[in-house]
Amino acid sequence: MNMNLYGHAGRWLMIDCGVSFDEPLNPAKPNSLKHEVVCADHRFITDNKDELEAIIITHAHEDHIGAIEDLWLRWQKPIYTTPYTAAVLRKKLAYTAFAELVSIIEVNDGETVQIGPFSVTWIRFTHSLPEPFGVVIETPAARVLHTGDWKIDAQPITSAGFDSGVFQRLGLTGIDAVVGDSTNAMKPGWSTSEADCHDGLLAEVKEAQGRVVVGCFSSNIARLITLARVAEASGRYLAVLGRSLERNVGLARQFGLWPEHIELIDHTHVGYLPAREVLVVATGCQGESRAALNRLADDSHPHLVLDKGDKVIMSAIIIPGNELDIQRLTNKFKARRIEVVHAEQSDRILHASGHPNQEELKQLYQWVKPRMVIPTHGEPDHMKAHAEVAKKAGVRMTLTGMNGDLFKIGLQPSVRRNAVKAGRIALARD
Questions:
Q1: One-letter-per-residue 3-state SS of 108-124
Q2: How far, in whole angstroms, is CA 201 from its chain's centroid?
């Protein structure tokens, strides 16, 4: 649930505005009362909204875009993002009463826009959905690369492969700080390419004697395209269960990413097909109580009933804090003699993370040669590991901190602890 603020000359620029699901308000007590949707405490910038210039959205994952529909009216500032993410945002806002009031300004790869005192250039990365971007933010004080979510992927499915030349050129022009993704900083080596998931998923599906249901993140367009190709190769019909999945397949078609010769069948028809011809993608891979997977586990889904001998493939990581919910979901399937295969427990490649492992972090810093690195987007252990990787890659200075800390980037870098109140706020959703 990202929300980052960059300040200069009395003005602020917001980078991302996301949500998280089924989260406790107090992360120090993960077993405390959970709320279905939470966002970052926005009170500091709401109290200072007249100083906010604009909002930049790096990509269309819910933890970067999801709170816009809940919070935008508090600020009423223009939103800058790329065409695919803009399309996702417009669909989300279409259900609000203020959609026509929102100014969404589309930008493209390499474009530079002056937003108040901030000169912002969009830099393409690779990730698990179309148009993942970082931004270079430049003021008279410093030049910063904010990565957003990224990895180095030669075959990301939804876009061209990673372009190292862009980052080598940044290294020649000078970057004061990289503010970057720490999600996989504790994992050695290189992350798996999204393209490598195809063979593992195909093997699992071909082995199945009955229906196959795959749980994955609905915004993972690359995985949906891979599963469409798996359905074709295994002789099964593909259907999706969940409005968010239907919306994202529609967007993939709109932007020319979906294999046009592969048709989805109507999800209301999937229950009438022979078991060996069914491949379904369902929402709820983190154990969400109202999502399609939980309804299938409870045998309460209106359009599909699973039987003994069917298979459920969890093609996603387990997000920390969701372990108990996912275990309960798994137990319900197993009690009905339905096989469950978790990507993290399989010898096959069934999931590819969209975040960089240690060798990718090192490579980025060897290209960009930043003066300092500020690890974000992770738990304290992840950020500490990220800082160590940066040092080994030759970065002379790292600054780590917690939510609410103010990082000063300039001639004399420093961290002011607890500069603003930070925390989580529950959002009311129907």
A1: CCCCEEEECCEEEEEEE
A2: 21
Residues in the chain, total: 430
Query: What is the C-alpha separation between 234 and 408, in angstroms, rounded?
Result: 55
- Residue 232 in tokens: 């074709």
Tokens describing residue 212: 């196959």
3-state DSSP: the chain helix, strand, coil percent, rounded to 5?
Answer: 30, 25, 45
- Residues near 114 by beta carbon (within 8 Å), at least 6 away in sequence: 120
| Distance from C-alpha of 132 to C-alpha of 287, rounded to nearest angstrom | 26
Cα-flanking dihedrals φ and ψ of residue 391, to 5°? -60, -40
Question: pLDDT of 219-232, one tens digit each?
Answer: 999 999 999 999 99
Q: How much is the pTM?
A: 0.93
User: Between β-strands 19-24 and 34-40, what pairing exists: parallel, antiparallel or unpaired?
Assistant: antiparallel
The reported pLDDT for the residue numbered 430 is 59
Q: What is the pLDDT of residue 320?
A: 74
Measuring CA to CA, how many Å separate 270 from each of 71, 108, 306, 325, 336? 38, 39, 11, 27, 20
How far is the C-alpha of 131 from the C-alpha of 174, rounded, in Å?
25
- Reported in sequence order, the residue ranges of 25-69 that DSSP labels E, i.e. its strands, are 34-40, 52-56
The token duo for 370 is 């930043």
pLDDT cut 90: percent of the chain above it: 90
Separation of alpha carbons 18 and 13, rounded Å: 15
pLDDT tens for each residue of 74-116: 999 999 999 999 999 999 999 999 999 999 999 999 999 999 9
Buried b (16+ CB within 10 A) or exposed e, 115-124: bbbbebbbbb
Query: Residue 19 burial (CB < 10 Å; 0-12/13-18/19+)?
Result: buried
